[in-house]
Amino acid sequence: MGKIFRFHTDVDTDQIIASQYLLYPTIDEMKVHAFESLDPEFANKVQAGDFVVAAENFGCGSSREQAPAVLKALGVKAVLAKSFARIFYRNAINIGLPVIVCRDLYDHVADQDDMELFLEEGIVKTAGQEFTCTKLPAQMQKILDEGGLIASLNREDN
User: Fold this and answer.
1) Closest Cα partner for 33 from 52, 13, 50, 49?
2) φ, ψ at 88 (rounded to 5°)
3) DSSP letter assigned to residue 134
4) What is the tens place of the pLDDT at every residue in 29-83?
5) What SS3 class is residue 124?
6) What is the secondary structure of 79-90 as a DSSP string?
7) CA-based diameter of the chain, in Å?
8) What CA–CA distance (Å, rounded) separates 149 from 154?
9) How many CB atoms lie within 10 A of CB 48?
10) Distance, CA of 97 to CA of 90 (rounded, Å)
11) pLDDT by residue (tens digit) across 117-139?
């Protein structure tokens, strides 16, 4: 069970982590600035196991890998949106951050609602309602379970 942090349509990677913070040497130094232009207190409020829920085209803009990385570093359990920018989606899977298409969720939740995600079943429960989301293919689920693409590939080599 975690809290929802709700964001709008077309959240771009510069809104997730602004370009001036890419100069910092580590993700831990960057993460405190996540969503700074949209919610200056986000990094202080989000807890491990919380969720980002958004409308259409989440993660559009540049291909910076730091955007999903700062969310994962802050403990975000998953990002659920009506749709994702393709490169953000791929980068998130590569680092082991679940990104789930859930078309109906956004219109039925509010910021700070409690939510529970059943990732393997493709089900979300919140506010007394249950939503069906896109289930990840088995291979993609395996990559997430192993901590991302590189970790998964390293395991296969052993």
Assistant:
1) 13
2) -60, -45
3) P
4) 999 999 999 999 999 999 999 999 999 999 999 888 999 999 999 999 999 999 9
5) strand
6) EEES-B-HHHHH
7) 45
8) 9
9) 9
10) 10
11) 999 899 999 989 999 999 888 88
